[in-house]
Design a protein that fits this description.
By secondary structure, the protein is of the alpha/beta class. Helices cover about 40% and strands about 20% of the residues. It has 13 helices and 16 strands. Helix 3 packs parallel to helix 5, helix 7 packs across helix 9 and helix 9 crosses helix 12.
């Protein structure tokens, strides 16, 4: 990932996760002045320091909830990727104010610190669960989007371009369904399926890092970007996993979990009616009208009726074979297959 100038300093909040590591590795590979990681867990920082071993990588212990620690990490920074968040749906359901503190107030701290430090651009990572949210995680991410995107409206002279990206499900991410299915198959246990008809957008980690990179290079003040993605049912995902690993595990239907949706939307029809198609991506610009409330009431948009939500139930659906092919693009799946002594004719 190139930043345009070789001595740029880039801050990644929550940077010890798989996203942060991948972005950091791309930045270091392509020549960057410094990559700073701001996160809470010293053990994960230590691990990343040792595995990546690059003296352009600097670590800041802190919490986005604490404005002072954000300010300290932000000094002299040119670009920010804000990935620090509470992401687990169930824990945010039980402790919604914790989601507000990290995802909303923590993000506001990042917005304010970036503005104060004269940062040039900041990309905020959001999720499809922020669209028509039903759970506290999605609601707090929806508010984070509003906080980041409205900054330029309230501060027209700001030096910082703030933009958001929304992910779908990142395949093989920690604690997600694909590694769970794999461990169930390995243990010879049944595969647990919540609702076979449930659909999700499936994105590889590489796709999601490409999305952030695209936003980084193309963002204008207040933009939100999504990557066009394919979806599948959970039944087809399970079938593809069983076939790839030649497993005869049974399927057990466990029912929908706390605060889950049957499908997810990467963008609402209201947003799509304003979106600009950029090939693999949509740019959703900010509503740039000022605080003139009359306009919101008087100016409707007849085109909205023509659009459907960009929803995992309605986009073209992958077949089981296509899910298998997508799974085979993941390095983790390839190495798991190799470990199990399995090779696929599709590799
Ligand atoms: O035992 C299980 C667990 C999950 N699922 C289903 O698999 C799909 C994916 O589940 P999971 O991998 O847990 O992801 P989500 O709950 O959709 O949430 C993920 O995707 C979000 C982005 O949408 C991230 O913010 C979350 O951190 C991440 O866990 C869902 O339809 C689940 O109902 C099953 O069928 N069986």
């Amino acid at each position: 990932m190139t930043t345009g100038h070789e001595d740029a300093t880039v801050l990644i909040t929550g940077g010890t996760g798989s996203f942060g590591r991948t972005v950091a590795a791309r930045l270091l590979r392509d020549g960057v002045g410094q990559v700073r990681i701001l996160s809470r867990d010293e053990a994960k920082q230590d691990d990343m320091r040792h595995t990546m071993g690059d003296d352009r990588l600097r670590f800041y212990l802190g919490d986005v909830r604490d404005e002072g620690s954000v300010d300290k990490a932000m000094r002299g920074v040119d670009h920010v990727f804000h990935a620090a968040a509470l992401k687990q749906v169930p824990s945010c359901e039980f402790f919604p104010m914790e989601a507000v503190r990290t995802n909303v107030q923590g993000s506001e701290n990042v917005v304010r610190a970036a503005d104060r430090a004269g940062v040039r651009s900041a990309v905020f990572l959001s999720t499809d669960k922020a669209v028509y949210p039903v759970n506290a995680m999605g609601m707090s991410k929806a508010l984070m989007e509003k906080v980041a995107r409205s900054h330029g409206l309230n501060n027209p002279t700001t030096a910082t371009t703030m933009a958001c990206v929304r992910y779908g499900n990142v395949m093989y991410s920690r604690g997600s369904v694909i590694p769970l299915f794999l461990s169930q198959m390995r243990a010879g246990k049944p595969i647990t399926i919540t609702n076979p008809h449930m659909t999700r957008f499936m994105m590889s980690l590489a796709d999601s890092v490409d999305l952030v990179e695209f936003a980084f290079h193309n963002a204008r003040q207040g933009d939100l970007f999504i990557r066009k993605a394919r979806a599948c049912t959970i039944a087809d995902l399970a079938a593809a996993m069983l076939r790839l690993f030649r497993s005869d595990s049974q399927i057990e239907i466990i029912g929908t979990r706390h605060a889950e949706k049957v499908s997810e939307a990467l963008a609402s029809r209201e947003e799509l009616s304003k979106a600009i198609d950029m090939g693999d991506y949509f740019r959703i610009p900010l509503d740039s009208r000022g605080l003139d409330y009359e306009l919101y009431v008087a100016e409707g948009d007849a085109r909205q009726a023509e659009f459907l939500d960009y929803d995992s139930h309605t986009v073209p659906r992958m077949s089981v074979e296509e899910v298998e092919e997508l799974l085979l693009t993941l390095p983790e799946i390839r190495s798991e297959l190799a470990l199990a002594g399995l090779t696929s004719s599709r590799v």
